[in-house]
Write a structure and sequence with these properties.
Layout: H1 4-18, H2 21-31, H3 36-62, H4 67-71, H5 77-96, H6 98-114, H7 123-128, H8 133-143, H9 148-158, H10 164-178, H11 180-191, H12 193-236
Length: 237
């Protein structure tokens, strides 16, 4: 019997999985590129394939083998402090503009070395930049790695005393919630294509003006919280 409290916990974990950093980065990148709708649709299908397949395997076959518990390993206080310090450094560099000067020097050196060849992009940028739904499908499969929240939701589903059909429906529900950042824009393209395209254009312009400041603030916030948690845990030991 599935308890209401457990059902709520599963859906909360699914919402947490929605903010997977890899998915956030991929959605942002696709919204900055032409043919956003095609890229998102292909990526969504690939993400569905990877997350649903993995979810069914974990719930039905791998629970108890240690795969879920191992993925939920919590950070030690020292790791908190180190990662927090790194995040604060990233925030400081972005806020000061030193990263832009460093990139400019690298671009000049690369141009001198290769005779003015364009800067080499990352693998996801090169793949998604081709504007093909087939390519974004492959990228969606490759980048849809399970996060802690997703695995925790699967672990909780596996512990429920329900039938196989109900278990499968719960896994599907978690996967659907997890991909909401892709599903909602695509639904907008289906129901209100002109408004959605306008919203995407406005997002591109807004991100171009505010991306550096937002990333810096996020890095400061995450770094500060990690350092604080690590310090508290060290004092408590």
């Amino acid at each position: 019997m599935l308890a209401v409290g457990d059902l709520g916990s599963i859906f909360l974990l699914a919402l947490g999985a929605m903010f997977n950093p890899t998915l956030l980065a991929a959605v942002t990148l696709m919204m900055l590129m032409p043919r956003t709708k095609e890229l998102m649709f292909g990526y969504l299908l690939g993400a569905y394939l990877a997350s649903i397949t993995l979810g069914m395997l974990v719930v039905y076959s791998l629970h108890g083998s240690g795969s879920v518990q191992t993925a939920q390993h919590s950070l030690t206080p020292v790791e908190d402090l180190v990662l927090g310090a790194l995040a604060l450094i990233v925030g400081f560099v972005l806020r000061s503009g030193r990263d832009e000067r460093l990139r400019e020097r690298r671009r000049r050196r690369r141009a001198e070395k290769h005779g003015g060849e364009p800067e080499r992009k990352s693998w996801p940028e090169r793949m998604l930049g081709r504007g093909s739904a087939r390519v974004s499908f492959a990228v969606g499969v490759a980048l849809s790695l399970p996060g802690v929240s997703y695995l925790a939701a699967l672990d909780l589903i596996a512990k429920q005393d329900v039938g196989r059909a109900e278990t499968a429906l719960l896994v599907l529900a978690v996967c659907l919630i997890q991909q909401a950042l892709l599903e909602l824009p695509l639904l907008g393209y289906l129901l209100a294509p002109e408004w959605t395209q306008g919203a995407v254009e406005r997002f591109r312009a807004w991100l171009g003006r505010n991306a550096r400041r937002l990333i810096a603030r996020g890095a400061f916030a995450v770094g500060g919280l990690l350092v604080l948690r690590g310090a508290i845990e060290l004092i408590a030991q």
